[in-house]
Amino acid sequence: MQLKLPTTLEHEPLIDAVFEVRFKGTTAIADILPGFLFHELDPKPKITRLPAAEIPQPLRANNPALQFAPTQRLEWKKYYISVGDHNVVISCKLPYPKWPSFKAAILDIIGRIKNVGITGQVERYSVKYVNLIQAPTLAEQVLKIKMEIQLGDIQVSGDEMSLKVHRKEDDIVHILSIIIGAEGTMPDGNRVSGAVVDVDSIRMINAPDFEAFASNLEEGVEGLRQANKAKFFGCLTEAAIDEMGPSYE
Known about the structure:
Strand order of the largest sheet: 3-4-5-6-2-7-12-11-10
Shape: globular
Helix content: 25-40%
Low-confidence stretches: none
Structural class: alpha+beta
């Protein structure tokens, strides 16, 4: 039976929303794109040089942990646009502006980047959503997640825990991460504890260049977001979803 997905939540648990596109064989975009986007976007974004920019490019290229580390970031309206040697990352400021606005921003920014004429193959794009499901105790956090875990003679029920699962479905790889016993600060400044549910949905593609990728993005990114959303709500118990004040209109 297919899970019915809420259209909106009264109590939004989201703490991060990210879109990323990765290239193969392209290294100059970190030098070109920030200046291009500064002149393209209105109002003018604020550009920040990130710590990875201090590391010479050949060293970044030879270190797997740094190959996709952004070197510059633009702050524009409700979004951040981060650029690395082989990738572009678009993320949301909090509070989350909701998917229709985020999707429109993604398509707008990617449509502008298309005009730069970036060479090199586009190999993947992804959407990642990180949510903090609040609950004061470990046992209550576990009860909000739809899972049963036993390790040896230990039945996980009130224990700190981290779990990561890679699931391939058709052309999408979902990486689901659960952390029980997390703490964080919400946009209003309140310190809260709960379970982190992180769903990173990656679609592997073989677009010959950026223009071909951008021209077919709208339908693809919408389908990817819906698949990501289904995986997130599939991780939660019915009671946990009800506490969020879901609307199904």
